[in-house]
């Protein structure tokens, strides 16, 4: 973590790209091996589930977070299409890896009577009990690489929100490159420290994953969705939607609860969406063309972060 934060803060986006490409070599080799091993495992038919609705909703919201950052780093719409297609192909391998681990874990528990795997410990059990020598090392290296790539990209994209979308756009439009650089570095350190602080309340993987995938997703999906399809949706409305989404998500995470229910998810979505409806009907905003604008493709929007 210390190494990742150092090269993220000091070198910025370009170094992250190069390190991610290098680290991805380990990841994709591991993904293909584990996915292939999982594909050869036979499970009963009731383990097969197809969820087309989830896939449709996920794709309709467009790229968000670090995905949007890579889109804005391209130089033309043609590069956006090429980059997006490549990302779809490569990222599909990680779910094949996850599926392979899950399948091998289920198969292991079925072969050993009385063994019921804790979902929180499936990965270490599969690595230690199922994977052969040699593959274990590759998988461990790939998991470390995956953690580093996720860490540095998330830190960098989060700092760019403050540096470009808030500080430069709303607070100091005439900020120099040096000022933007220091704000990017300081905000990167702040994001890391905030993450460490939040991790103190995380006792299981399911707790933090439920927070990110359910509460946070419910609070943030609409700002990202409207940014692609609503012409009146500008930076101010996106900022308001993201802030209210964060507040609702963190309230559910910290104050409420141990179990996720449909009503809680709907409450987070409602709180995040109401300010957007208010902006639509009661605030005079300057219209812009819908979708990805030509000026949005300028890589300089990322600033020095």
From TrEMBL:
It comes from the Eukaryota. The keyword Transcription does not apply. One of its GO terms (molecular function) is proline:sodium symporter activity. PROSITE patterns: NA_SOLUT_SYMP_3. The chain crosses the membrane at residues 21-41, 85-110, 130-151, 180-202, 208-231, 238-257, 263-283. One of its GO terms (biological process) is proline transport. Belongs to the sodium:solute symporter (SSF) (TC 2.A.21) family. This is Uncharacterized protein. The lineage of its organism: Eukaryota, Sar, Stramenopiles, Oomycota, Peronosporomycetes.
């Amino acid at each position: 973590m210390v190494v990742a934060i150092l090269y993220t803060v000091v070198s910025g986006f370009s170094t992250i790209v190069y390190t991610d490409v290098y680290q991805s070599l380990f990841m994709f080799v591991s993904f293909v091996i584990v996915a292939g091993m999982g594909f050869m495992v036979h499970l009963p038919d009731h383990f097969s589930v197809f969820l087309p609705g989830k896939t449709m909703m996920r794709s309709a919201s467009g790229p968000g977070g670090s995905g949007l950052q890579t889109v804005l780093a391209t130089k033309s719409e043609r590069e956006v299409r090429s980059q997006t297609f490549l990302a779809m192909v490569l990222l599909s391998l990680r779910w094949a890896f996850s599926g392979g681990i899950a399948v091998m874990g289920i198969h292991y528990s079925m072969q050993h009577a009385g063994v019921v795997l804790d979902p929180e410990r499936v990965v270490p059990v599969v690595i230690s009990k199922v994977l052969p020598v040699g593959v274990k090392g590759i998988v461990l290296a790939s998991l470390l690489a995956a953690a580093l790539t996720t860490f540095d990209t998330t830190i960098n994209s989060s700092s760019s929100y403050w540096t470009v979308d808030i500080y430069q756009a709303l607070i100091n439009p005439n900020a120099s490159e040096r000022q933007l650089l220091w704000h990017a570095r300081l905000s990167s350190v702040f994001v890391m420290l905030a993450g460490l602080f939040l991790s103190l309340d995380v006792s299981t993987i399911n707790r933090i994953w439920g927070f990110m995938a359910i509460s946070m997703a419910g609070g943030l999906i609409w700002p990202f969705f409207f940014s692609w399809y609503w012409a009146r949706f500008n930076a101010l409305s996106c900022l308001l939607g993201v802030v209210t989404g964060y507040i609702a998500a963190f309230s559910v995470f910290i104050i409420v609860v141990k179990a996720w229910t449909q009503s809680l998810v709907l409450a987070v979505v409602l709180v995040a969406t109401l300010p957007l409806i208010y902006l639509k009907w009661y605030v005079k905003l300057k219209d812009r063309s819908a979708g990805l604008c030509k000026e949005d493709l300028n890589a300089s929007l990322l600033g020095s972060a």
